[in-house]
Amino acid sequence: MTLMILVHALVFFISITAEPTQPGPNKAGMLMTWVLYGAPSEQKAREWAQAKYDAYQLKSDVPKTIKEFLVLPMGDTLCTEKGPEPVQWTSLPSLEQRAIPGPGLVHYDSSLERELHGSSLVFAPNKMHGKDDRTPDQIRASQQSQIKDSADWNWDEDRAWYFIFYTRKQAVLVQAVNSIAAAISYSKAVRGTPTGDENARIRVWQELTKYND
Hints:
213 residues; 9-stranded mixed sheet; 33% strand; alpha+beta; two-stranded antiparallel sheet
């Protein structure tokens, strides 16, 4: 699968990382992320995010300093195991809509957040040593057999979700049953492209935020 990124000015992945200006006990850092839809330009998206950050800081008792401020274009392509598809941004569900029916109740599925523990980084595909001749299906089957007994990993196709892979220059949306399967599709899509030269971090898709809201 070859990833064709059709970059536009409508959707940006934004990530702000901040740390306490004066480090100390009980002073934690902070990460704020959005997928912003409808911003007229990268500069406007950055100004929007800065305003959100400033508003939050006014309510905080701990002064913080921004360490990383990323405003990354997102393309119109959704990566899946079956190949690239157009992204229907306004039709994507929010994480709160991913509920699991239970005996007389519905509860929030937090496994997507837990499964990223220890696997939130994908090393640059172009720099990986050696050649793996296995197909994506074979790689996935191998991974599944190794962790199939872990309750924190979903393999149910009906509960596939969305993951954001981002470098310092670009963000890509991937749909898969879990972050391991998503990483396989992402690596295959960006291998051989400039994006494949960089390590990527992973975030679970939360929701779409509209610029004018």
